[in-house]
Specification:
The complex is a heterodimer of chains A (about 650) and B (about 375). Chain A has 25 helices and 19 strands. Chain A is an alpha+beta fold and about 650 residues long. Chain A has three domains: about 190 residues, Alpha-Beta Complex (Penicillin-binding protein 2a (Domain 2)), CATH 3.90.1310; about 170 residues, Beta-Lactamase (2-Layer Sandwich); about 160 residues, Beta-lactamase, CATH 3.40.710.10. In chain A, strand 14 and strand 15 form a beta hairpin. In chain A, helix 10 packs antiparallel against helix 25 and helix 14 packs across helix 16. The longest helix of chain A has about 35 residues. The radius of gyration of chain A is 36 Å and the shape is elongated. The N terminus of chain B is likely disordered. Chain B has one domain. A two-stranded antiparallel ribbon of chain B has the order 1-2. With about 375 residues, chain B is mostly helical. In chain B, strand 1 and strand 2 form a beta hairpin. The chains are: A alpha+beta (about 650), B mainly alpha (about 375). The interface between A and B is large, with 41 and 48 residues.
Chain lengths: ~650, ~375
């Protein structure tokens, strides 16, 4: 065969083989393509969407908190912060150069500088890094003017919780803070950087309502995570506004009135509705420091303060009620068949076995019945009555008056006080009850402990006709129960009208309303006899308004309205809870801390009781001297604010008690 | 030119005749492929002529005219200067080596007058085939059977491969080796010799594995389980498969592919341009382009069979085989069938060097077609 032809033939054969191979490979690739684009198409299309679509949470604005008049107690303020974007700063010599320029305009320390440099390197180039927060308006405008020289720098507006009344509100409203690890519950909202939740007070109690629900933003992102555009946006539910029963004007007044005391607390409440109009504890703290992020040093200062600014003494301070407890003992006596005209001679002390129990008045009051015993706070009459009634019966009446257990107010850290019984002592102390202890209980000392709020509730229950009123700080919130939890079916009361005046109240009474306060919760009766309560009220009236009353110097200076009440001076047998929390015993403080507590409970007006007050001034000695004037000022102020007296002071008395 | 008129049996063709003989339909098919590429590059730039589409069009325009010139140059001149072209490409490869050493790192390209960066390895693929075609052209079938005649062509293949592997550019080296081996087969080297080399190759593979760069090893490893590490080694393959699958039958529309436009797809204008086509034009678009490629291959095959000279046959078929290697490796790579080797899709991917080289290859094929009836002597002269 011609070798040339052989070569051609071999070539043609092998070339054909290649061509066939090429067709086969092309077919195979086509098959693979069919598998990817037809068989598996749906799966990959889903994956492509997952790549492309991101969901971002939108934090809802936190609900405001207002007082009963709509005054804002907790709001969100715009917080200006300066942020830096690396990819934009790159053109002007890099992040370092831009930061140095920025440092000439606002205060940036080296630590911040290093942090920003580190963060800009570790994050993607387009992610804004916060350089400084809480800028003043001057700083913002300074940066704004120089913006052309600061590529990548921009002003960002965020929201920070702000408490306009700062320390006067701290113990009621509480504060917000960053979410701790323990508080993470799977709600993605809590994972948002910078998200704040309620940590104390109303902020915590109604946190779920105030928080609202998050919205989502459906965005298209590229491979680097940069948002290309927003595809869809689901607005969240902004937080609910929570309206408190508090009257900020009164609260402010009370805070100012107590400011000079080292450690004190006061509660003013509506005896019919349970609305707390003021709840003050001093010293206090600035909740804004918490919402802005409190420094370690600032925190240590608060913790180490011996007067316990972080403790809300109105609900967590447990004190021996002293003589303010005597109404409860007297009521227990009447409930158990001892008539108000039961007379005891007070020689200044009584003997029980080999122990002698003193009356505060060394030489005695002479012959005392219930009225005069309360009026002059005679201890001997109560020793006698307590011995006759017995501690367990006293405790039963106390419990009906709301003592010995928490009131259930919407605040964190409320304490229940203590009303001792025989069973209690046997169980807790493993010891039998001694009669002497009953006597001590009769004058509100010994084991008896109560909080200022409990004393206010007790007073309210005595003067409102014996109804089981409970205190509340917030009006019912549509969709949320009293514990701040969302409810499915809600039988909603209409909101309390703000700042109800006397005229409105009188109108309500005239139109046959059940109580002077519209829409107030209807509390059950405690089953006390009205004539018993009447005689107690008469006695409390006499405490302030008779010549021999212990608080006669603190009568209201209004012509048409008077207050009733009861002073109390409780011996400090042991350190009060508030102090124990403070935990410091410097030599200077010991003397102060051994002094008696000054207490006062009261109500006004006497002819138609509407407001109850309790005041405790720690280690201020006499209740009539230190506590009663404060109570008087608070009741005068609440009557004025609620329209009982005209604004220009008509009806204001100039003299003392009548 | 040392061709004397009297010795030719057939009359020399005039330029006009040659122009009439040019395979215009092939030239148009090439233009169609490049047009698809330019469209995809336009889309890759999010609907912009810059930075890729415009540049590609300029290079194509130059190449399209150049190959027409190449097609009408006498095939005997092509034969005569085959080794010169090979040597020129090889020197450029050496130049890359030197330039790379100077630039302080491995480089694949040479700056050409500051205009664009030229990759000599792209051109080398086709000048190697040119050189091998010339070498085997002068060998008889018996000569090809002798081992001693295979030493020179083996060196012709090995020398540039060593340089390219040093760059390192595995993809190009594989295409070059494949092209070389195919030339040996087409030239008539006996099958048993390939079997022998194959067995030797398998035996040597552990050594080769040991010599491979870690990143090359990684690419082979990922092939077996690309989805195990979606953000790491398998990222490119997985994202490419997602894009193709998401395209479905008819695609998501021109410039509408989310995978490409949101940058989930890497190197979408070059190596992964087929994926982009798959995402935006779906199975239909892909089959269309693959059909075009197949038609081009068939054309080349036809031309090779039709050529009367061994040189023309080997040259046309060699270029087509090298071209098909390009196509198959790229498409198989983006589908996740073979490792990511970094090889562009011929005619479609963005890149001046690759486009010029492939166009050069087709210029040679067209040259073979124009001169299909020219008989060439063993030494390159005309022959009766």
């Amino acid at each position: 065969m011609n070798p040339e032809k052989t070569r051609t033939k071999v070539f043609s054969r092998r070339a054909a083989l290649f061509m066939g191979g090429q067709c086969l490979v092309m077919g195979g690739l086509g098959g693979r393509l069919y598998y990817l684009q037809v068989v598996e198409s749906e799966r990959y299309a889903t994956l492509a969407e997952e790549n492309r679509i991101n969901f971002r949470l939108i934090a809802p604005p936190r609900g405001f908190i207002t007082d009963r008049n709509g005054d804002y107690l907790a709001i969100n303020v715009q917080n200006y912060r300066v942020v830096l974007v690396r990819e934009q700063a790159k053109n002007a010599g890099g992040v370092q150069a831009v930061l140095e320029k920025l440092a000439k305009l606002i205060d940036i320390n080296e630590h911040t500088m290093a942090r920003v440099l580190r963060e800009t390197e570790s994050r993607r180039a387009f992610v804004p890094i916060t350089v400084a927060e809480n800028l003043s308006w001057q700083e913002v405008s300074r940066i704004g003017v120089n913006q052309p020289d600061l590529p990548g720098v921009s002003i960002d507006v965020g929201q920070t919780r702000h408490y306009p009344y700062s320390e006067h509100m701290a113990h009621v409203v509480g504060y917000v803070g960053a979410v701790s690890e323990a508080e993470q519950n799977g709600d993605p909202l809590l994972d948002l950087p910078g998200f704040r939740i309620g940590k104390n007070g109303i902020e915590k109690h109604y946190d779920l309502a105030l928080r609202g629900s998050s919205g989502t933003s459906k965005v298209e992102v590229n491979a680097l995570g940069r948002v290309i555009r927003e595809i869809d946006r689901q607005e969240g539910q902004p937080g609910r506004e929570v309206k408190l029963t508090l009257d900020m004007r009164l609260q402010d007044f009370a805070g100012a009135r107590l400011r000079d005391e080292k450690a004190a607390s006061a509660v003013v409440m509506d005896v019919h509705s349970g609305d707390v109009l003021a709840l003050v504890s001093v010293p206090s703290y600035d909740p804004n420091a918490f919402s802005e992020g409190i420094g370690a040093a600032e925190w240590q200062t608060l913790v180490k303060n011996p007067y316990g600014p972080l403790t809300n003494k109105a609900i967590a301070g447990q004190y021996s009620p002293g003589s303010t407890f005597k109404m409860a003992v007297a009521l227990a006596a009447m409930e158990n068949g001892i008539q108000p005209d039961h007379t005891v001679f007070c020689p200044g002390h009584v003997e029980l076995g080999d122990r002698r129990f003193h009356c505060w008045k060394r030489h005695g009051h002479g012959s005392m019945d219930m009225h005069s015993a309360i009026e002059q706070s005679c201890d001997v009459w109560f020793y006698d009555v307590a011995r006759r009634v017995g501690v367990d019966r006293i405790a039963a009446v106390c419990n009906r008056l709301g003592l010995g257990e928490t009131t259930g107010i919407e605040l964190l850290g409320e304490r229940g006080g203590l009303i001792p019984t025989r069973a209690w002592k046997r169980e807790k102390r493993g010891q039998p009850w001694h009669m002497g202890e009953t006597l001590v209980v009769g004058i509100g000392q010994g084991f008896v402990l109560s909080t200022p709020l409990q004393l206010a509730v007790m007073t309210a229950r005595l003067v409102n006709g014996g109804k089981a009123v409970t205190p509340r700080l917030a009006y019912p919130l549509d969709g949320f129960d009293k514990n701040g939890q969302p409810v499915v079916n809600d039988l909603q009361n209409e909101d309390m009208p703000p700042g109800e005046t006397l005229a409105e109240a009188a109108e309500a009474v005239a139109s046959g309303g059940p109580s002077p306060t519209r829409n107030a919760p209807d509390f059950q009766t405690l089953g006390f006899r009205q004539d018993h309560l009447k005689s107690l009220l008469d006695a409390m009236n006499a405490v302030v308004n008779s010549d021999r009353g212990t608080a006669r110097k603190s009568a209201l200076r209004y012509a048409d309205y008077a207050m009733g009440g009861k002073t109390g001076t409780s011996q400090v047998r042991r350190i009060s809870q508030a102090e124990r929390d403070a935990g410091i015993r410097s030599g200077e403080d010991i003397a102060w801390r051994l002094r008696d507590h000054a207490l006062f409970v009261g109500y006004a007006p006497v002819h138609a009781p509407r407001y109850a007050v309790s005041v405790v001034v720690e280690h201020a000695e006499g209740g009539s001297r230190a506590a009663a004037p404060i109570a008087r000022d608070l009741l005068e102020e609440v009557l004025r604010l609620q329209g009982y007296v005209t604004a220009d002071g008509v009806g204001v008395k100039t003299g003392g008690a009548g | 030119m040392a061709i004397r008129h009297g010795e030719l049996r057939q009359p020399e063709m005039t330029l006009t005749q040659k122009i009439w003989q040019i395979n215009w339909s092939m030239w148009l098919l090439l233009g169609l492929c490049v047009a698809i590429g330019i469209a995809m590059q336009y889309s890759a730039a999010n609907g912009s002529w810059d930075p890729w589409a415009k540049k590609q069009f300029v290079i194509y325009s130059v190449a399209a005219v150049s190959i027409l010139v190449l097609a009408v140059i006498d095939i005997r001149i092509v034969l005569r200067y085959a080794y010169v072209a090979y040597g020129f490409s090889f020197l450029m490869l050496v130049g890359v080596e030197i330039y790379g050493a100077m630039a302080g790192g491995a480089e694949r390209w040479l700056p050409v007058f500051g205009l664009f960066n030229f990759q000599p390895s792209e051109l080398m693929k086709f000048t190697l085939i040119l050189a091998l075609a010339r070498y085997f052209h002068k060998l008889s079938y018996e000569d090809v059977g002798r081992l001693s005649y295979l030493v020179v062509p083996s060196l012709l293949v090995a020398a540039p491969m060593v340089l390219i592997l040093r760059q390192p550019d595995l993809g190009t080296a594989v295409v070059m080796a494949g092209g070389g081996v195919c030339m040996f087969i087409l030239a008539g080297v006996r099958w048993w010799k390939f079997a022998l080399v194959g067995i030797a190759g398998i035996a040597a593979s552990p050594f080769i594995w040991g010599m491979m760069h870690p990143y090359q090893k990684q690419r082979v490893m990922v092939l077996f389980d690309p989805e195990s590490d979606p953000l790491g080694k398998g990222y490119h393959i997985l994202q490419s498969k997602i894009a193709m699958g998401a395209g479905g039958i008819s695609g998501r529309g021109f410039t509408k592919g989310s995978q490409s436009h949101l940058n989930f797809l890497p190197e979408k204008q070059t190596d992964f341009i087929f994926t982009m086509l798959a995402e935006e034009f779906g199975l239909l678009g892909c089959i269309g382009l693959m059909a075009l490629y197949l038609v081009l291959m068939a054309y080349g095959f036809g031309i090779a069979l039709r050529a009367r000279s061994q040189f023309g046959r080997l040259l046309a078929m060699g270029c087509i085989v090298a071209f098909s290697f390009y196509v198959f490796i790229n498409i198989a790579m983006v589908m996740g069938v073979i490792p990511v080797v970094g090889l562009p899709l011929p005619l479609v991917s963005h890149g001046g060097s690759a486009l010029l080289a492939v166009m050069f290859g087709f210029g040679l094929i067209m040259n073979v077609f124009v001169h299909r009836d020219v008989r060439i002597g063993r030494q390159g002269d005309s022959q009766s």
